[in-house]
Each structure stands twice: as structure tokens, then as C-alpha cells.
Write a structure and sequence with these properties.
The protein is an alpha/beta fold. The chain is 24% helix and 24% strand.
Length: 80
């Protein structure tokens, strides 16, 4: 049975636009050993499309969040 370390980043609405692009580019420069580490990004809904294209073919997986009525903030699992 394979054991992983999971690194899961739930961005909420705190990383958007240029910050998201910078974060992804920095992360893609890192060497991630897929045998032992599983990286999953859960960006805000507004960033899903661009992030999915940016990480395609990399060792990074994509997750998603649900919806919340406020514009910004740290609402666990929520997007505005």
C-alpha cells in the first residue's frame, strides 16, 4: 500500500489574479516527488480555469470549493 504526504492548499478568496499566477509559477519550480507527496490546490472558483491550465501535466492536482455570499474573506470551503 502506497503512503503519501498530502499538501492541500485551500485558498478561499485570499489568492486571486496576479498573486495566483505568481504562486503557481513559484510552486511549479519546486521538484515534487509524486511517489511520496500529493499536492492538491483548491483555488477560488474565479481562478479554476487558469490554474487548471497552468498545472496541466505537472505533479499538482486540482480541487474546488463551494459558494458563499460575501466578496472576500477566509470562509472555509467557500468562494464569493
Amino acid at each position: 500500500m502506497r503512503k503519501y504526504f498530502y499538501l492541500i492548499a485551500n485558498w478561499k478568496m485570499n489568492i486571486v489574479n496576479n498573486k495566483a499566477e505568481y504562486f503557481i509559477n513559484s510552486l511549479l519550480e519546486k521538484k515534487i516527488d509524486k511517489k511520496f507527496i500529493k499536492v492538491i490546490l483548491c483555488p477560488s472558483y474565479t481562478e479554476l480555469d487558469i490554474i487548471s491550465k497552468s498545472i496541466k501535466g505537472s505533479a499538482i492536482d486540482l480541487g474546488a470549493q463551494n459558494v458563499f455570499y460575501k466578496k472576500t474573506g477566509s470562509y472555509t470551503g467557500e468562494i464569493s
